[in-house]
Structure formats: C-alpha cells, structure tokens
Amino acid sequence: MPEVVFTPGRRRTSPDPADAPPRAAGPRSSPTLRQRALARMRIGLLGAAGFVGLIVVWQVVAVAEVIGNGLLPRPGEVLAVIWTGLGDGLAYDLYVSTSRVVIWVAIGIAAAVPVGFVLGWFPLARAVLNPLVNFFRALPPIALVPLVIVYFGIGELARGIILMYAAFFATVVIVFEGIAGIEEKYVRAARTLGADRFEVLLRIVLPFSVPHILTAARVSLGIGWASLVAAELVAAQDGLGAVIQNAGNFLDIPRVYAGIILIGLSALVMDLLIRLASARLVRWQDRGDR
C-alpha cells in the first residue's frame, strides 16, 4: 500500500517503488568501431600466434634432425626458395593454379546451387536424387583421373572437370541442407499474407539461402585447392601441383614445401575474402563471431 506522508499544511502520498511500472529495457549498446577493431586485432594476433608456434616447432625438429638425413628443410630454406622462386616462374605457377581453382570452382558452384534448391524445395526430387548425390560426393576426385583422361583428354578441360566435380557435390549438399532447414513458420507467414509459391521462393527461401551459399563457396574452394594436385596430375606443365610433382621427382624437398605453403596461403586468403563478403551480405543475420 502507498505510504501517507504528513507535512505541515498539506497531505501527500509517496508512491511505493514496488507499485511503479517496470522500466522498459533499453537497447544494448553496440560495440564501437574501436572496440570492433581491437577485437579483430586480437583474433588476428591469436591466429598469427598459432603459425609462429608451428614454425618454432618446425625449426626445432629440423635442427634436431628428428627426420634423418636432412629430409626436413628448415623454415628459412623454404622461405628462401619461395622468395627467389616467385621471381623465377613460381609466381606464374601460383597465378595459373589460382585461376584454375577460381574459375572451375565457380562453375561448379553455379551448377550446384539450382540442384540444391530443387533438392531442398521439392520432397520428391529429394527422395529420388539424394542417394545419388551422397554416392558421388563420397568419391575422391583423384579416383576419377583415369576416366577423365579417357573421356576428356589431357588438356585444360580435363583438369577443370576434376575441380568442378570436387566443388559441385559439396555445394549441392550444403545448399540442400540449408534450404531444407528453413523454419516452416516463415513460409506459413508468407502464405498467410497471400504469397504464392514463386514469391515464397523469391522472398523467403532465396534470402535465407545466401549464408549457406557463401558457406558452400568456402568449403568448395577448400576442396578445390585440396584437389588441385589431383587435377594437375593430368599432364599439367604449370601450376603449383605440377611444381610439387616435379620437385618430388627430383627430391627437391624445399621446393615441395614451398608449393605446399603457397597452396595453403592462397586458400587462406580466399577464405578470408569470402568471410569478409559474408559479413557484408548477411549483416542482417544474428550470429556471433565465426
């Protein structure tokens, strides 16, 4: 009950704090630009620390000759090979491999996205095609090299087919799972508001599929780089895969490590670019740091 307070000449009632209406919770303050920059810097430093630790372990193992007969080169030797090699043809090999991966993986993703939509949106198509997709997804691209040579020869098309195959089925599965996982309440709400099937697909399914398409691009690029050596087994004269194979044939171990490191760094840079694009394109989606 409110408490009655007597003061000379007037009568006043002081409200009980328990009877006061609850305050509306204000919006949480978003992090400032400086705070976001510091958070990103901290994440970057932690990631760099992992590489530094790996290089230190590598140096110790190489100096201690844990792997006998000097078969493990020191990090400085590999860095020198990369530095001199980039001006002596290695930069061109890096360009060729990057072009192959980007072009053919993009073709594979473009071909896979409609298939993923069909599997995710139409239950009958999913029941018929899903076992086939899972069957081919389990086949490693390197196992297809002999057949690709027989059917497509040893030209650039054959190498592209292997990379496109590697990207296609991974993208189909990710897009299909993303669309099949869209919450039914959004579709029902759109249909309640009068949207037909095409409008639901355009206004609900397509926006919700963008994060999954970007995830598929990240995964497919990783698989594409992992399949690069298999693709360049098909009589390639240039590219990082060819560099690794030729260096291995002549036991040029530092150059083998140089090719492997350049593949890893290229994949890392591409993954970072896609993550930055994803942060821009799906800013509406409530998600934590990835």
TrEMBL record:
All residue ranges annotated as the ABC transmembrane type-1 domain in the record: 90-274
Broad class of the protein's primary localization: membrane
Topology of the protein relative to the lipid bilayer: Multi-pass membrane protein
Region (Disordered): 1-31
InterPro entries: MetI-like, MetI-like_sf
Record keyword Iron present: no
Record localization: Cell membrane
UniProt biased composition (Low complexity): 15-31
Residue intervals passing through the bilayer: 43-64, 101-122, 134-154, 160-179, 256-277
PROSITE patterns according to UniProt: ABC_TM1
Keyword vocabulary terms for this entry: Cell membrane, Membrane, Transmembrane, Transmembrane helix, Transport
GO BP of this protein: transmembrane transport
Family matches, as Pfam families: BPD_transp_1
One GO cellular component term: plasma membrane
Keyword Chloroplast: no
Family statement: Belongs to the binding-protein-dependent transport system permease family.
Protein known as: NitT/TauT family transport system permease protein
